[in-house]
Amino acid sequence: MALFEARGLHKRFGAQVVLEEINLAFEAGQLSGIMGPNGAGKTTCFNVLTGRYKPDRGSVRFDGADITGMAPHRIVARGISRSFQIMNLFDEYSALDNVVIALPQVRARGFSVTHALDADTDARDRAEAVLDRVGLKGRERVNVRSLSYGERRALEIGVALATEPRLLFVDEPTAGLGTGATARLAELIRELKRHTTIVMIEHDMRFLFSLADRISVIHWGQVIAEGTPEELRENPWVRRSNLGGLA
Amino acid sequence: MNEPILRVDGLRKSYHRGFLGRTETFRLEADFTVEAPAIVGVMGPNGSGKTTLFELITGSNAPSAGRVLCRGRDIHRVRHDERDRLAIHYHQSYQVRHFRRTRPAFMMDRAGSDYPIVHLFDEPQFNTQDGYIGFMLDFFRRLRSEGRLVFLCLHPNERFHLEILREICERFVFVQRGRLAHAASFEDLTGLAPVRDYLGTLLR
Fold first, then answer.
1. pLDDT tens digit string along B90-145?
2. What is the mean predicted confidence (pLDDT) over B163-181?
3. Which of B95, B98, B135 is opposite residue A217, by nearest beta carbon?
4. How many domains, chain A?
5. Is B137 in a helix, a strand, or coil?
6. Chain B: nearest CA to A225, how far in angstroms?
7. Per-residue confidence (pLDDT) for residue A118, from 0 to 100
8. Dmax of chain A from CA atoms?
9. Which of A163, A183, A200 is the last residue of a domain?
10. CA end-to-end span of chain A
11. pLDDT digits over B79-93, tens only?
12. d(CA A37, CA A168)
C-alpha cells in the first residue's frame, strides 16, 4: 500500500470547480512529481493534500489513516511537512534560529523565539546538522535577509526537514531561480531523497524529469497522465516537443 | 446500459431580436445519436453555433425545443447542482459552472453518476512545444476506454490541429450557420465541400 493516497478529490469555490477528480498514490522512499499547465489546479491540489483546504468529496489517507480535512498542524504532527511556494522564513533571525524554531522539541515547548534558544545546545546541534545537510554549513549565523535566493530555498527545505517529516511536500522549488541556483537545488533535492519521501510540484519539466521516480500530470483538475519519466517520454507528441529533447 | 450514451433529439435553440414582431437572428438545430463511447471531432467557423451546441448538451443553456438524453436521462430535467455529473464543458475558464435555476431541486431528477459521462473540450490550448498535447490525447483515449463520450472542438489554424483530429477522432461533426453535418471518417469529412472551403489551404 502506498504511504499516501488521495481518492476522488473534488473541490470547488462557489461555482468555480478547481479539482474535478484527483486520484494520486505516493510510495514510501520515492520522489513523486506533480506537473501541469498554469491554472490546472496544482496548488489547490497541494492545499487539499496538506490539509489547508477541505475537499468537497474524496479522501486522503496517510500511512493507512484517514486524514481528510484534518487541521494542518495535526497533519504535521503525523509527519507530513510542507515547504511553501511563498517564503515563510523569519527574515530578522539567523539561518540557525529559523531551523531551531522548527524542531519538534522546541515547538513542543511553545513558540517563543526570544526565550531561549541560546541555552539549548542539543537543539543547536540538531539544527546545525540540518543546515549541513542542506548545504548551508558556515552560514548558520547569517541573517536570513542577507541570504541569496538559492540559499533561502535551501533553508526553506531545511526548515521543513527539521520537523523530521516522513513525507515532505515541496511546492515549485525552482520558481524564480536562475540556472546556476536550479542546478544546486537539484543536487540538494537528490540528497534529501535519500532521507525522506518527497512529493514535488514543479513547473520546470526538465528539473522534474531528472529527479522524479514517478510523475502525475494534472490538467482540468484531473490526473490526465501518470508514469515514470521514461514512460511519459515515450509518447510521440512528447518526443516531438522540447521535452522530448531531454536526454 | 442499452440507452445510447447521447441522444440529441429534435434540439432547437432560437435567438430573437425585438419584442413585437420578433425576428429570429440565429437558430441552431441538431438531431443525432451517439450509441457508444467515442471521440467525436467538432469543427466549424466562429459564430456557427459550436459553443451553443455544447451549452445545450451540458444543460447550461435551455433549448427552445427538443431534448438531450445522456444514457437516457434528460439533462434539462436534472438538478442544477448535479448537471455537471453528466456532462462537462471544458472551455477557456472551464472551472466556472453556472446553471440557471428554473425549478427547485426537489422537483428535478438526480444525475445518477459521480463522474461525468460526456466530456466536451472546447478549443483546448494545444502547444507543440511543451509536450502536454500527448498527455491530453492520452487522457481523451482513457476517458473513451472507461466508457465516456468525448467531444473535441477545434478551430484548426495550423496543420497539426488536423493531424490531431485525424489521429484521435472516430467521427466528426461540422457546424455551419446553426446546421450540423456528420462524417464517419476524416476522409469523409474532408470530402465535404463546405469543409474544404472552411479548411482552405490547410488541406493542401
1. 876 556 666 666 777 777 887 777 789 999 999 998 888 888 899 999 999 999 99
2. 96
3. B135
4. 2
5. helix
6. 6
7. 57
8. 61
9. A163
10. 32
11. 888 888 889 998 765
12. 23
A contact set with B (CB within 8 A): 8, 12, 15-18, 20-21, 37, 57, 205, 217, 219-222, 224-225, 232, 235-238, 240-244
Q: Give contacts of B113 with chain A, Cβ < 8 Å.
A: none
Residue B134: the pLDDT is 92
Q: Looking at the domain assignment, is residue A85 inside a domain?
A: no
Q: Give the phi and the psi of residue A224 in degrees, each rounded to 5.
A: -90, -15
pLDDT confidence of residue A85: 45
CATH number for the domain that contains residue A31: 3.40.50.300
Mean pLDDT computed over B148-168: 94
Residue B38 lies in a domain: yes
Tell me which residue has cell 537545488. A185
Chain B: closest CA distance from residue A43 (Å): 15
Same structural domain, A49 and A159: no
Q: Determine, for residues A222 and B94 on separate chains, whether the beta-carbon distance falls below 8 Å.
A: no
What is the C-alpha to C-alpha distance for residues A116 and A178, in angstroms, rounded to an integer? Answer: 37
- Going by the DSSP 8-state scheme, the letter that residue A91 receives in this structure is T
Give the model's pLDDT for residue B81: 80
The average confidence (pLDDT) of chain B is: 90
Number of domains in chain B: 1
